[in-house]
Design goal:
The protein is an alpha/beta fold. The chain has eleven helices and 13 strands. The chain has a domain of 199 residues: NAD(P)-binding Rossmann-like Domain (Rossmann fold). α1 links the parallel β1 and β2.
């Protein structure tokens, strides 16, 4: 007689990090509920498993009833929900603190065996950034409700769907100048599938409850990361350091434009809170365990970035052929 299938609920499972966790869960034979606010926009996750194995369902972590329904009967819960910009009712406190605590509390009430909470390496209760403070407070509330929770703190996450390298590569296609706020700020980018692998260690019970800081093998300044990206897309651009005082002024105008438009315009360019974040390095502290402690070997950036940034080259996928032909002519 076959045993009942294992069920995992992944909040935000159609997002950048969430979809990689969902894919790994499906590959390991789990039935997966992808809990999202817009299930119709997440239908693509069905292709990650066999028919009926992965299903998007309606849930909003700001709503108790929908969270309870999404968790009912689940063995494991993963919370990947996070925002970078506040819009409408999607505020840092509502999502990162109250929403995270709600998921943890209901998971504990319903007897869920394991909870994985994806936070951020920027989490800091004493930060001048509202984003960083909310992430830190959310972690505290999660551990209060679910003491055995596995909390993952990734640095900037890179991969084919990322909003970091793709964003600046798109900018490089249009502009001869790339302004950087906090050009000397250091980052430790981590590959998205390494984050998913770390989450799976917690899901499978191979990681003890607590905080894990996830960073890749390289620590680079913001400027060096952009220069690496430019080299890969074969474009020469002027990279300039934007002073913090000037960045704050620009960000204030963008924030005011969002407020004045009453939601018609979302400030995805630069917010005042992001300017505050960019004053601080985003690297692992060494205080908490990391990828290696979870048995995950960090993936270097170069081999992965090449696989998806090629489309930003002057001749896209044909750039390598042109370079090869050019070398043959010179020979």
């Amino acid at each position: 007689m076959s045993s009942a299938p294992r069920i995992a609920t992944v909040f935000g499972g159609s997002g950048f990090v969430g979809r990689y966790i969902v894919r790994r869960l499906a590959r390991d034979g789990w039935r997966v509920r992808v809990a999202v606010r817009r299930p119709n926009d997440a239908l693509f996750v069905r292709t990650y498993g066999s028919v009926g194995q992965v299903e998007p369902i309606l849930a909003n972590i700001r709503d108790k009833a929908s969270v309870r329904a999404a968790i009912a009967g689940a063995d494991v819960v993963v919370n990947c929900v996070g925002i970078l910009v506040e819009t409408g009712k999607q505020k840092f406190n509502a999502v990162h603190v109250e929403g995270a605590a709600r998921v943890a509390r209901i998971a504990a009430d319903q007897g869920v065996s394991r909870l994985i909470h994806v936070s951020s390496l920027a989490a800091d209760a004493n930060s001048d950034s509202a984003y960083a403070r909310s992430k830190a407070e959310g972690e505290v509330r999660v551990r209060e409700a679910f003491p055995g929770a596995v909390i993952l703190r990734p640095s900037i996450v890179f991969g084919p769907e990322d909003q970091f390298f793709n964003r600046f590569a798109s900018m490089a296609m249009l502009s001869p100048v790339i302004p950087l706020v906090g050009a000397s700020t250091r980052f430790q980018p981590v590959y998205v599938d390494d984050v998913a692998a770390a989450a799976m260690r917690g899901i499978d019970g191979q990681a003890d409850g607590g905080i894990y800081e996830l960073g890749g093998p390289e620590v680079e300044s913001f400027r060096d990361l952009i220069q690496m990206m430019l080299q890969m897309i074969r474009r020469r651009r002027l990279v300039i350091s934007w002073p913090f005082w000037l960045a704050r002024i620009n960000a204030w105008f963008f924030d005011m434009a969002q407020a004045a438009s009453m939601g018609l315009f979302t400030n995805n360019i630069l917010t005042r809170d992001q300017v505050r974040q960019l004053r601080h390095d985003n690297v692992v502290s060494g205080i908490y365990p990391g990828l290696e402690d979870l048995g995950v070997e960090p993936t270097p950036m170069e081999g992965i970035l090449e696989t998806y940034l090629y489309c930003y080259r002057p001749h896209g996928q044909y750039e390598a052929i042109r370079e090869s032909a050019s070398k043959m002519r010179r020979a």
